From TrEMBL:
Span of the signal peptide: 1-21
Protein source organism: Spirosoma montaniterrae
Name of the molecule in the record: Uncharacterized protein
Lineage per the UniProt record: Bacteria, Pseudomonadati, Bacteroidota, Cytophagia, Cytophagales
Keywords: Signal
InterPro entries linked: Endoribo_LPSP/chorism_mut-like, RutC-like_sf, YjgF/YER057c/UK114
SUPFAM superfamilies documented for this protein: YjgF-like
């Protein structure tokens, strides 16, 4: 086959719908990521609130599937790399809640905003490098739709001494 024929066959397949983009969950599986059962709220709040086509997720902390978490202050107890992993785990927790709320992660039209809180020693100033653990995961999972506005701030303390807490806002179909 000539290049022109291959191109035309690909274009026809794309237009006819026989070539489908990879789903977000397939992307996560290829990345070796397994979503976890969302945790229950620990106080008087809900994990997600929808208004119009926006879904606001409450702050999530860095917990593993076994329920354990990453605790401590960045710049004192934990390195930037450990903080990055904490933010990545928090991102998996957020995706797990999104999946539970929406039934299908492909319903996410756009990740709009990420707000990251980092349990920081007073002289620690690399909060953006830590929250990149979540941001990088969202962009890897959703592609261009995962690029978002963001805040990454240091906190004197977080609940139960977790290293990271993150909340997100997504636009949904």
């Amino acid at each position: 086959m000539t290049m022109k024929t291959l191109f035309l066959c690909g274009l026809i397949a794309l237009v006819s719908g026989s070539v489908q983009a990879q789903s977000v969950e397939e992307t996560l599986t290829k990345m070796g990521i397994t979503l976890i059962a969302p945790t229950k709220p620990t106080a008087n709040y809900v994990k997600a609130v929808r208004t119009g086509n926006l879904l606001f997720l409450a702050g999530h902390v860095c917990t593993r599937a076994d329920g354990s978490g990453i605790m401590g202050k960045l710049g004192k107890d934990l390195t930037i790399e450990q903080g990055y992993e904490a933010a990545r785990l928090t991102g998996i927790s957020l995706l797990s809640t999104l999946k539970a709320e929406l039934g299908n992660l492909d319903r996410v039209r756009r990740v709009v905003k990420v707000t990251g809180f980092v349990n920081s020693a007073p002289d620690f100033g690399d909060q953006p490098k830590v929250i990149n653990g979540c941001s990088d995961l969202l962009v890897a999972a959703f592609g261009e739709k995962g690029k978002h506005a963001r805040s990454a701030v240091g906190m004197g303390a977080l609940p139960q001494n977790y290293a990271v807490e993150i909340e997100i806002v997504v636009e949904i179909e």
